Amino acid sequence: MSQLKKIQYNCKKATFLIEKKMLSRITFREHIELRIHLLGCSVCRIYGKQSRIINDMVRQLFKSSMPGEAKLDESFKKELQERIEIELNKN
Amino acid sequence: MSAESNQLDPHTWVKSHADYLYAYTIKRISDEEQAKDLVQETFLAALEKVDRFEGKSSERTWLTAILKNKIIDVYRKKSSGLRKDVQAAEHEQEDFFDHDDGHWRSAYAPQAFGIEDVDHLGNKEFNNILQMCLQKLPALWMAIFTMKHMDDADTTLICSELKVTPSNFWVIIHRTKLNLRACLQRNWE
Questions:
Q1: How far apart are CA B37 and CA B30, in angstroms?
Q2: Do A61 and B43 touch (CB under 8 A)?
Q3: What is each CA distance from B4 to B1, B16, B59, in whole angstroms?
Q4: CATH architecture of B84-188
Q5: ipTM of this complex > 0.90?
Q6: What is the DSSP letter of B30?
Q7: pLDDT value of residue A83
Q8: Contacts A–B by Cβ distance under 8 A
Q9: Contact in structure between A61 and B126 (CB atoms under 8 Å)
Q10: Architecture of the B10-78 domain
Q11: Closest Cα of chain A to B13: distance in Å?
């Protein structure tokens, strides 16, 4: 397989570079390889788009404090504060 | 001490921060009992460090930092050992790409599935699926993914905390996204 064919076909490598590029730096050579690949590969273009959106959604999910989020039950909280008071009184 | 210096008031900790810390934990460790334990341990550990609080951060930020370290401890324990869950997850994506040329196999090739153009941020149904897919990840992958994406942790720090090499770190970041994306496509379409 020619060098160019290798780049054009290797979606595994391309998706790896897409992931690395979103969080860090990739080399100049990798940059060029990825560009060449994406020019000819619509599947990896979709992958890249989806992957970015997934990152945004994950971030949103973890940062938001939505109403209706998991809450502790009151009895647990009451006991917890009592436990803290006991510790405080020790000193 | 300056006037803006933050103060600690352990008498109101539970009322002010317990639900927040619990919600923070449950997103990162989807085990209710373990999450409760971690919240409790955080307060107790915090009590012992009260003297060392310098007032530079808010009470909540300070408590969250203590909790964060405890969550990393859990990740470390969960992801050490045999890592059978990793093998299963790797097996799941074995056929995604052609073994010879690395091209997507058509059965697994990403397709538009409705997240590309519509804004699903905050969509409850989608978030549920996202959480379900995150929970399917092996403990080590989930730990790395969470620390990197949610907490913006430094890659070097993650590698040393979880004992993975930098090159393995990137392999895991890639593999995690492959499985996560496939899971979302399967379940949202």
A1: 13
A2: no
A3: 8, 20, 13
A4: Orthogonal Bundle (1.10)
A5: no
A6: -
A7: 93
A8: 137
A9: no
A10: Orthogonal Bundle (1.10)
A11: 8
